[in-house]
Amino acid sequence: MNLAFDTFKVAFDRLIYLLAALSAISIAIFSTLIPLNLLLVKLQLGNIWWLYEGVEYSLYIGAFLAAPWVLQRGAHVRVDVLMMSLSKPAAARLERMVDLFGSAVCLVLFIYGFRATISEFQDGTIPDKVLQIENWYMMAVFTISFLLLSVEFLLRVVRSDESILAEEEAAAETGF
User: Fold this and answer.
1) CB 68 within 8 A of CB 149
2) What angle in degrees, to the nearest 10, is found between the helix axes of 51-73 and 135-174?
3) Which of 58, 65, 74, 57 is nearest to 16 (CA)?
4) Buried b (16+ CB within 10 A) or exposed e, 75-104
5) What are the distances in angstroms from CA 121 to CA 41, 106, 115, 134, 143?
6) Phi, psi dihedral angles at 25 (to 5 degrees)
7) CA 98 to mean position of chain CA atoms
8) Which of 34, 35, 38, 39 is nearest to 51 (CA)?
9) Which of the residues 4, 9, 101, 107 has the least number of beta carbons within 10 Å of its own beta carbon?
10) Going residue by residue through the chain (176 aa), what tens digit of pLDDT does each one get?
């Protein structure tokens, strides 16, 4: 393709890898803090008062921000029964159409999330919890996630075109 697009793809891949790594690190931290909290309670030394709500926020943030990485790796849940019953070219076309549709849906959710983020920011809404993080931060995570997912779906379309071209070139070279 061109240098600017290739640079964008590399930067995007690094960004979503970083977000997935941060999600994994947060899971590791909380899996250490939960037993520590239980030990503190058992020894009657107090507790980590924000831990359970911190886990809740962390899982929300991690699940949304790591979703583009999961999509890129093909580790998401999908049913390939239809794809397996189609010819390769038809399956590739269907895959591209599904990816374009997925990108469109994610773009709609991004727009919804952006509007909700602005609304929550203007309202200054705060949840009724011990660990109070303004709602607009959580909506911003939702918004960013769906923007990244929309981009990843579009990159999947580009990657499928590249892999189809590579397969056609290989078939032409070998005579099959």
Assistant:
1) yes
2) 20
3) 65
4) eeeeeeeeeeeeeeeeebeebbebbeebbe
5) 37, 22, 10, 8, 13
6) -65, -40
7) 17
8) 34
9) 4
10) 589 999 999 999 999 999 999 999 999 999 999 999 999 999 999 999 999 999 999 999 999 999 999 999 887 766 677 777 888 888 888 889 999 999 999 999 999 999 999 999 999 999 888 888 999 999 999 999 999 999 999 999 988 866 655 555 555 565 54
Domain boundaries, the chain: 3-174
> Do 50 and 29 meet the contact criterion of CB atoms below 8 Å apart?
no
CA 116/CA 110 separation, integer angstroms? 10
End-to-end CA distance of the chain: 26
DSSP 78: -
